[in-house]
Amino acid sequence: MPGESHSADQSPSPTQVASGYVAPETLAEALALLAAGPQRTIIAGGTDLVPAVRAGRHDPAVLVDLRRLGLNTITVEPDRVRLGAAVTFTDVLQSDALAAEYPALSQSAAEVGGPPIRNRATLGGNLVNGSPAADSAPPLLAYDASVVIAGREGEPEVPLRSFFESPGTTVLQPGEILTEVVLPRPTAPTQSAFYKLGPRLAMAIAIVSVAVRVTRDGDGEVAACRIALGAVAPTPLRAEEAEAIIASRGLTVDSIAEAAAVASQACSPIDDIRATADYRRRMVGVLVGRLLTGLSTGDDGRG
Amino acid sequence: MVDYELTINGASRTVATDPRRTLLAVLRDDLGLTGTKEGCGKGDCGSCVVVMDGLAVNSCLVYVGQADGAAITTVEGLASGDELHPLQRQFVDRWAFQCGFCTPGMLMTTYAFLGENAQPTPEEVRQAIAGNLCRCTNYRSIIEAVVAAAGERSPQ
Q: Three-class SS of residue A89?
């Protein structure tokens, strides 16, 4: 027989490593495999990596598959929700707990690719690829998400707002594994929404994406606001000056208009095949205004 | 080369191969199951969709190493002997294909979808096939065929 038997209860053998593909059973094993040589790359869903390898944009020596590490669960705890990095967008869409407390995340999951892509593509993969247009990034930023990184020196939990560095680059270092996305649970009435503007309604990369959240105090006044933008800067980003306008003045016609204008100036979009920078900047203003107005009226602002 | 155990259309198969070949390549080139088509080869068109452990996946985006131990259903697994699956028969009866290249992917996507949603609306079918491109038939007859196939199975 030319092949070597491969079953779930064996540790990776040298032959499997030599084959360029290993699916370890434990996180410790996965970290050891990544550390054991150069050009070792993680594979989760593979929806970005497989075509990148095929197109010659990536040439990993060994792929370390995360599928046996139990990173595909959504765990609701009293003060946070933990999403394993290998949770797929289908998993996100099917979670009633997420839809109830983090609707903008569920809305973004519905915009990822089409159903077969969502069945494989993972939340962790969407983040570690470092795309400015990652669909899940704006809602996760709006919910103050953090990510847990295994194999890291020092604090393993990193706020998502500190995670992205430039197109295709994050703080994740070779040998490290993003294992979880952590969402703090809302402690006060919260509304949120997401909108993706793309060239079509499925299978599209965002031209602009926006997520907004407002959290109110006991008197119903806006206590906190988040406005997060995708595909309009080298990384997904928050429009903090615009957030401050809403946090201090609440959701009024005037404050919303001002926040929308400020947000459109906070981004640094580029011209590309999907849209011009000028169009993107204008659409940031339109969409921030529309989503915040939706929150103020109870309509979701997405129609 | 590594041996991978796959269940293909209900039958156990062992494939000795490079783990980084796509499931699509293994199905077509090693197992001779050429019903599954390669269109774009990067997950955009849905022509290569098969059902893997109950979920529709783009077989061009799955390395066979990722599919180790999985149960795969391809378009060859839909019919029972000479009897077409209701989806296949409705596609034929309603002319839901012209050149036919997208048809295996359409069938497998909607086969998985009907497993989750037995009585879909036309709009739900439209959403379900958002990842499957058809360039020459028309989506309407495809959607009608899927709704009709679902209707055949409705409880009396």
A: helix
Q: Of A80, A40, A39, give the one whose Cα is nearest residue A180.
A: A80
Which residue carries 């060239």 as its tokens?
Answer: A199
Which among B58, B74, B111 is the top mutation candidate for probing chain A, defined by the most A β-carbons within 10 Å of its own β-carbon?
A: B58
- Of the pLDDT bands very low, low, confident and very high (cuts 50, 70, 90), residue A18 is confident
Condensed to tens digits (0 to 9), the pLDDT of residues A161-190 reads 999 999 999 999 999 999 999 999 999 999
Instruction: Please indicate whether, in this complex, the C-beta atoms of A46 and B17 are within 8 angstroms of each other.
Output: no
Q: Is the Cβ of A54 closer than 8 Å to some Cβ of chain B?
A: yes
B1, B22, B41 ranked by CB distance to A3: nearest: B1
Rounded Cα distance between A132 and A138, Å, is: 10
ipTM of this model? 0.96
Partner B contacted by A55 (CB < 8 A): yes
Query: Which residues have CB under 8 Å from B108's CB, separation 6+?
Result: B36, B49, B50, B51, B56, B73, B74, B75, B78
